[in-house]
């Protein structure tokens, strides 16, 4: 019997990943990946090239019936009237629009930043920081007026890739009105809210006018057809796709340690946090996705391993040979500045250095604990906004690290479930593709993946010491 196949794409910060699964059972049939270039400013053509390479690595997708694209959130993709990309996209981790974020917050509060933060949270569920598209558009209008003037439409990475897959089939003249997005990614722009739809007034406030925006599709609504006739799902932001991929239930908080560190849960109700810690995103099923995001996660572990002349496994072995709390050594991991807390100009720091803790093992442990403490702060912020936490589901490249898996329950103070290593964002996109194709009311129930459960005695002193020191960091040198 021939089976029906679906494909899910994760066009994330560091790589493009493609999974091909059985639409009914969810069985993994084949997969592929290709790297993205480094940097916080990337031309969307690079994502397209990597997508083609990842599809080829996965053995092609001519036999696939539906495709959904999930991708890194917030990236600013500007298109001119002919559909040409105006300038390389500014990514979610590009902090150059931090002053524009401050300006937008202050302006909405008529000069009062606190009132402004509350007004933004009330309007869109989120207080904009440099990551959000709305602040990048203000930056473009302020710093590159010629590019701003050429911009006819603005979309996000997953919108653009879906459009390219569709446009390549549709016609020779790209049709900007065929751009689509979904609730989850639209909620990361800063000019869309579930309750109101697009807030064109906020877009105009930031950009000075109202460029064309993608149509926001319902969950499982078809975007169109790809070149090979495959149905295109609406796609999603990568975190919303991950929630679909792990089939998170009530009491589950997902922690993803990828390029970004994210802490999020599926919720029946929206949040509006005026402190800006919790972003009030929408999910990919018609619900909500309160989320905390840090800029410094797996790459902190990568560079620490590099400094210590080892790899991820070596880092884990070293970290597990040092005591909890690393004998007072504390790493504040703000290597790329930070988003939560909002410290775009901060640098990382090492505190509490003594002769006794001057070992590779102590540094390895402190780096892992530093990343986890930042995420534990995020967990607290979610709890403060009514999210129930019974267990943490740990995913992302960092979850492949044995020390991260073992230290996480001690730092978080709750059991940690680790699904078998996989590409959960791409899996969620594939599940959405199947949902779109099958046309049922809910996503298909796929066979659950094997999980391991990690428990540990809580180490609250590790978090207390981190909390005492996290604001003691130097600022970045001016460029
Ligand atoms: N064993 C490991 N220990 C620590 N980090 C790891 C390990 N395996 C992979 N990673 C890191 O995970 C990151 C990629 O994670 P991923 O979730 O795919 O990121 P993204 O989706 O942001 O591209 C890379 O920085 C990689 O080095
Ligand atoms: O900005 C956010 C969430 O708000 C990030 O989570 C990006 O969506 C990038 O994700 P990764 O590439 O790190 O998975």
Overview features:
479 residues; alpha/beta; Nucleotidyltransferase, domain 5; seven-stranded mixed beta sheet; 15 helices; binds adenosine-5'-diphosphate; binds 5-O-phosphono-D-xylulose
Provide a quick synopsis of the model.
The record marks 10 as: Important for activity. This protein has 479 residues and is α/β, with parallel strands linked by helices.
Overall description:
- With 479 residues, the protein is α/β, with parallel strands linked by helices.
- The chain is 35% helix and 20% strand.
- The chain has two domains: 5-246, ATPase, nucleotide binding domain (Nucleotidyltransferase, domain 5, 2-Layer Sandwich), CATH 3.30.420.40; 247-414 and 449-478, ATPase, nucleotide binding domain (Nucleotidyltransferase, domain 5), CATH 3.30.420.
- Strands 1, 2, 3, 5, 13, 14 and 15 form a seven-stranded mixed beta sheet that branches.
- Strand 13 and strand 14 (231-232) form a beta hairpin.
- The longest helix has 25 residues, at 360-384.
- The chain is globular and about 65 Å long.
- The chain binds adenosine-5'-diphosphate and 5-O-phosphono-D-xylulose.
């Amino acid at each position: 019997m021939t089976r029906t196949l679906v494909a899910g794409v994760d066009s994330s910060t560091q790589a493009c990943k493609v999974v091909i699964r059985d639409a009914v059972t969810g069985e993994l049939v084949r997969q592929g990946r290709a790297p993205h270039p480094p940097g916080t400013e990337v031309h969307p053509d690079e994502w397209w090239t990597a997508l083609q390479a990842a599809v080829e690595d996965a053995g092609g997708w001519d036999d696939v019936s539906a495709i959904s694209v999930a991708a890194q959130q917030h990236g600013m993709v500007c298109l001119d009237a002919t559909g040409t990309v105006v300038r390389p996209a500014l990514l979610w981790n590009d902090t150059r629009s931090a002053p524009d974020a401050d300006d937008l917050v202050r302006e909405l509060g008529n000069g009062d930043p606190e009132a402004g933060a509350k007004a933004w949270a009330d309007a869109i569920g989120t207080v904009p920081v440099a990551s959000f598209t709305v602040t990048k558009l203000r930056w473009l209008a302020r710093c590159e007026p010629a590019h701003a003037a050429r911009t006819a439409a603005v979309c996000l990475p997953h919108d653009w890739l879906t459009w390219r897959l569709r446009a390549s089939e549709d016609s020779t003249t790209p049709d900007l009105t065929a751009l689509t997005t979904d609730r989850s990614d639209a909620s990361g722009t800063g000019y869309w809210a579930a309750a109101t739809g697009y807030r064109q007034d906020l877009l105009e406030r930031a950009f000075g006018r109202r460029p064309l925006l993608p149509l926001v599709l319902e969950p499982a609504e078809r975007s169109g057809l790809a070149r090979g006739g495959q149905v295109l799902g609406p796609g999603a932001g990568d975190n919303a796709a991950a929630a679909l991929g792990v089939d998170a239930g009530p009491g589950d908080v997902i922690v993803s340690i990828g390029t970004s560190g994210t802490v999020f849960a599926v919720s029946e109700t929206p949040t509006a946090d005026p402190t800006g810690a919790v972003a009030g995103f929408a999910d990919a099923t018609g619900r909500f996705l309160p989320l905390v995001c840090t800029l410094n996660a797996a790459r902190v572990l990568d560079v620490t391993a590099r400094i210590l002349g080892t790899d991820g496994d070596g880092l884990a072995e070293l970290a597990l040979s040092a005591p909890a709390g690393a004998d007072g050594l504390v790493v504040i991991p703000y290597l790329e500045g930070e988003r939560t807390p909002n410290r775009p100009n901060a640098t990382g720091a090492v505190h509490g250095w003594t002769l006794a803790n001057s070992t590779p093992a102590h540094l390895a442990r402190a780096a892992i604990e530093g990343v986890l403490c930042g995420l534990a702060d995020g967990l607290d912020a979610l709890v403060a906004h009514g999210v129930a936490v019974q267990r943490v589901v740990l995913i992302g490249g960092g979850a492949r690290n044995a020390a991260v898996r073992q230290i996480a329950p001690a730092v978080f103070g709750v059991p940690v479930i680790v699904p078998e290593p996989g590409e959960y964002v791409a899996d969620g996109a594939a599940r959405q593709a199947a949902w779109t194709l099958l046309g049922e009311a809910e996503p298909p129930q796929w066979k659950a993946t094997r999980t391991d459960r990690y428990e540990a005695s809580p180490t609250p002193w590790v978090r207390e010491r981190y909390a005492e020191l996290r604001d003691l960091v130097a600022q970045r040198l001016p460029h």
